[in-house]
Amino acid sequence: MKKIIANKEYTTLLRDKRFKIMGGLIAFLLLVALLGGFASYRSLKKERDLAQKEARETWLNQGEKNPHSAAHYGSFAFRPKSEMSFFDFGVDSFTGTNVYLEAHRQNDPKFSAAQNSSSLIRFGEMTVAFVLQLLVPLLIVFLCFNSISQEKEDNTLKLMLSQGVSMSHIAWGKIQGFSKALEWIIVPALLLTFVLILIGTEGSLSADLLLRFALTLLAYAVYFFVFISLSVVISARAGSSRNALLSLLGIWVLTCVILPKATTNIGASIFKAPSNFEFREAIHKDEENGIDGHNPSDKRFEALKKQVLAQYKVDSVEQLPVNFDAIAMQEGEKYSTMVYNKHFDRMESIYQNQNSVAAYSAILNPFMAVRNLSMGMAGSDYKTALAFQKYAEKYRYEMVETLNTHMRDFSKTGDWEKKADASIYAKIPDFDFKNPSIISVLRQNWVALLALFLWVFLCIRMVSNLKNINLS
User: Fold this and answer.
1) Domain chopping of the chain, boundaries
2) What pLDDT is recorded for position 120?
3) Angle 431-434-436 from CA coordinates, rounded to 5°
4) Is there a contact between 85 and 69 (Cβ–Cβ < 8 Å)?
5) Could you say which of 72, 290, 350, 380 is the most buried, measured as most Cβ atoms within 10 Å of its Cβ?
6) Hey, which residues does 102 pair with through a beta bridge?
7) 420: helix, coil or strand?
8) E-assigned strand segments in 37-177
9) 243-259 residue pLDDT tens
10) What angle do CA 124, 126, 128 make, to 5 degrees?
11) Residue 198: which residues within 8 A CB-CB, separation 6 or more?
12) How far, in Å, are 290, 297, 299, 350, 387 from residue 283 at the CA level?
């Protein structure tokens, strides 16, 4: 009986003008978002790969110079584009694309796309994820709002029930029929997405990328099931089709528009982050006066000097067999890195707390659950941007340490004119950032996974418990 109802709903929906017009519009938007996003992805990927290559060549060909001067000359690290980022831009448009790597200073990623865009970018970009997360649920609402309420108004529901068909069987049949019809819109877009991924990777699909794509599809399938189920249940419970439509539109506005923005603002209000000026001033203060406020830089320098002289059993830095300037600069680098890490870790903790408010709201809002999982799998979430920044800092510190160590061993104190051979630069490996693993993404988004599981369980229970409803 469920199969008969499902086929009837499927056939009826394909003939419905609402489905043809709205479904066609959604399909067109998905096509535009896919092609536009992929074109942008390929352009940005090419530009960043080329920029990273040129930065490497510039670094290797800077010529003979003092190693610490080379550390100040520095280099650039460009964040690579993830293969699925054209599917979901995530926060990529709001995070920096490259970091300047230099001695004594940790720089923030710069040049985000939002810096050169109007304020309208904050309302969202036309991506596949945007259409699937916001517009497809709206399409579901308009297609399903009268799925059972219309049957009550036409008195056909009583007829079906009188023939021994249970209310839950009717609901499940309609859910299956709507889901099957929706495939005509969603499946072609997802197949095209897969083809574009193949083109973007030149056919060299990794198991990691395939699993990311499969998990993304599963997350969206669950998301659509939740909206279809809720629509059918509310249509059954509502007194009229009009009431069902108003209720479902209210749920869509609340879950997809109001709650995401509200939870973000609540998190930012509860866990306030310092301004950039306050952040930099706090770092400068700790560098000069010590983290504890009682260990100024000149005292740290004198203590280091006594320690090194005692280690080599000499009376002055001029008698040292190594370059004390390089030792002092590396110790300064180590201390400043400790200071920067202290303040960056504090900022990270604040942002994590802010994001956790939105993350936990997924328990009440399936939109937040699928959004977080989609960004994570696409490699365009905040965690991936943070991982890039941390990797760039680790690379920067090791670069400066290598150069200072070379300067310490090949020259003497005060010998600033002695230049190192250009071959020293090749000891610094290529910058090669990789996105966090799938296991890491799933671990970071466990709340979203739990939320989707709970929503599926809740929807199944609600549909199965459709028994005593008002038939008038």
Assistant:
1) 2-269+362-401+438-464
2) 45
3) 145
4) no
5) 380
6) 105
7) strand
8) 75-78, 98-101
9) 999 999 999 999 999 99
10) 115
11) 205
12) 10, 13, 18, 17, 21
- Contact present, 219 and 374 (Cβ < 8 Å): yes
Q: Where are the alpha helices (DSSP H) in 254-365?
A: 259-270, 276-289, 297-312, 324-360
| CA-wise closest residue to 107 among 69, 72, 56 | 72
Distance CA 156, CA 465 (A): 20
Look up residue 113 and give its two tokens: 């796309």
Contacts of 312 (CB under 8 A, 6+ apart): 319, 320, 321, 322
Q: What is the mean pLDDT of residues 310-332?
A: 87
Residue 121 has pLDDT above 70, yes or no: no
Q: Across all residues in the chain, what is the average pLDDT?
A: 88
Rounded to whole angstroms, the Cα distance separating 81 from 42 reads 9
Residues 308/329, Cβ–Cβ less than 8 Å: no
Is residue 87 within 8 A of residue 216, CB to CB? The reply is yes
pLDDT at 395: 93
Residue 368 near residue 260, CB atoms below 8 Å: yes
C-alpha separations of 432 from 50, 79, 171, 361, 389 in Å: 14, 9, 52, 35, 13
